[in-house]
Every structure is written in structure tokens, then in C-alpha cells.
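Attaching the record inline, Q. Sequence:
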Amino acid sequence: MLNFCIVEDDAFHMDHLKECLARFCGENGYEYKIDGFNDGLAFLSSYKPIYDAVFLDIQLPNIDGMETARRLRLTDEIVPIIFVTNLLKYAIHGYQVGAFDYIVKPIDYFDFSVRMKKFLLRLPKNDRKIVLTFGNTMQCVSVRDIVYVEVTGHNIRYRMVGEDIVVHGSLSAAAQELPPEMFCKCNNGTIVNLNFVQTVGKDCVSVAGEWLPISRHKKKEFVSAVTRFIAGK
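Structure, as predicted:
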């Protein structure tokens, strides 16, 4: 799942960028989600570090895109910022806020597709973040720190490196947030981070020192996923 955010006050350009993202993700087999804001202050006030990229217009009401980016960097130093603008004279200052790229309005889809492919090649897939909510608490965690996820009663337990986090939800919803090349089910109630697989036995798998059951109908798929993962490292 790729999470994008667009900060754009012009409805036409907002819709056009959403259409470009939807087309690109559809053509390349990515699931995606897009959040949109029409000014920088609204974006900053509700910001969560869950995005794979923030598409940021430079001409915005209240505070402009460059100032929005500067304030964003105070809370998130690594999220990729892609400026979308017709003001190239300002876009060249993107290095000041560690911008990844800029896209010129009106967006040409071919150029957009080329830039997105370049962006995704540099995207640290194993360092994506998700937000877990339990009670009145929200916690941002890196997927690379999730050892496995399992159903426990009516809740979901995230076995993390160093802690457990239990949230209300479904395993299918949890799976949507995890990169499929990195996670795989070993049974109907458990999703395993393949980074932590140590030994695959006849009917169980050692994951960071814990033995978890492998169901018979999941074993072939799970072993294939482990093989592909190791080959792709």
C-alpha cells in the first residue's frame, strides 16, 4: 500500500494529480491511498508520518509551500517532498528542505510516470511506517520492526522488536498496510515478517526465536514467499 498526500488549493490541479496517481498505480499494480489538503496549515495540524510522498504546491493560502515544507521538516526529516508548481524559480530552492523532486504544472502524464518510477526505485520499502491506535494513544511504527501480526480474540497483536502492541481490528485490514513482498501468512491467523524467519520446519516456522505453526494449505505459498524474499535481498 502506497500512501500519498497532496497539498493543493486548486481543485482542478488536485483532481488531475489524483488521476495521474491512480493511473500510475493501476498500470504498475500498486494499491494506494490519497489524502488531500487545500492549505498548508490544515495539512500540518493533522500531519501523521505515514506518507510515502507528499506532493506540495508552492502557491498556497495562509503559508506558502516552501514554508509548509520547512515546518514539516521540524517534525519529519525523511518523508519525500515532491513540489508540484509552475514557479520553477522557487522550486530550485527545494534543496533547502530536502525535496526529492519537482513536477511542472500542467502535469504531463508521461513525464510524471518517468519521475514516479525513479522515485519508487529510491523509496526505502522496508522502512515504511504505519500508525497503530489503541485506546486514546496513536503510535507510529516502522514495518521493519514488526516481527509478526496475529489474531488474539477480537483484537490484533503486533509482535514488535522489544514490545507488543494490541489494537482492535482485523487481520485482513492489517495486511493491507504491510508490504506484500516482505510479509506472508504462515496460517490463517498470523502474518510473518520474512526478515525474521530463521528455520522452516515440517509444520512450524522459527521467527526471531519463536516457533509459529504453519498450516498445511499455507505452507507451499509461505515457502515460496521465503524463497523469493531471500533471492531478492
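The mean pLDDT is 88. The helical segments are 11-28, 40-45, 65-75, 88-91, 109-122, 171-176, 216-232.

More tomorrow.
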